[in-house]
Design a protein that fits this description.
Elements: H1 8-26, H2 32-39, H3 43-49, H4 53-74, H5 81-95, H6 97-104, H7 111-133, H8 143-153, H9 162-180
């Protein structure tokens, strides 16, 4: 009797889950052996999927953007979608400070980051406009304003423990939402 091996997509997701957990706990410079151990796979499996740490980070960024887009799609008819998406970003920042710090170190003109910021803007644009039209948001933000909001949410990175970061993220989000709500 043979056991069926998981397909490449399953292994990839398994490795990304492991990398996310390892990097959140130990930083993005953690040995990739920890990712392999967390995923319960062999080293060759990791390198078949991701040739280096940078490839893992790019895949994590892509997955985060895709998940944010999926949440936005689910909230398509919700006038509160803009605020719920901001809450999701705040929570993500609070639980993955090393990941956020990694991307903060990338140069401002980096093409990949420019594309990521553009995608994030596109995800937020329609929900923000819907909130303005529904009278829930005082005014539409510019692209640079939205990036500033994300930077403000990044203040939660100053917390030393996960619970402190979550509390700071909630507090920052509260101030931001108070300023944005009509």
């Amino acid at each position: 009797m043979s056991t069926k091996r998981p397909d490449a997509a399953t292994r990839r997701a398994q490795l990304l889950d492991a990398a996310d957990a390892v990097f959140a706990a130990h930083g993005v410079t953690a040995p990739l052996e920890l990712v392999v151990a967390q995923a319960g796979v062999g080293r060759a499996t990791l390198y078949r999927q991701f040739p280096d740490r940078s490839a893992i980070m790019l895949a994590l960024l892509e997955r985060s953007l895709q998940q944010t887009q999926e949440v936005a799609d689910q909230l398509e008819d919700d006038d509160e979608a803009f605020f719920k998406l901001l809450q999701r970003v705040a929570e993500r920042i609070a639980v993955s400070p090393p990941f956020v710090d990694y991307w903060r170190t990338v140069e401002r003109g980096d093409e990949i980051m420019a594309l990521a910021r553009n995608r994030l803007w596109q995800v937020f644009q329609a929900p923000m406009q819907r909130a303005v039209e529904a009278g829930l948001c005082s005014a539409a933000l510019s692209r640079s304003d939205l990036l500033l909001v994300f930077g403000m949410l990044g203040a939660s990175l100053r917390g030393e423990t996960p619970s402190q970061r979550q509390a700071l993220a909630r507090r920052a989000l509260h101030f931001i939402l108070e300023g944005l709500r009509a």
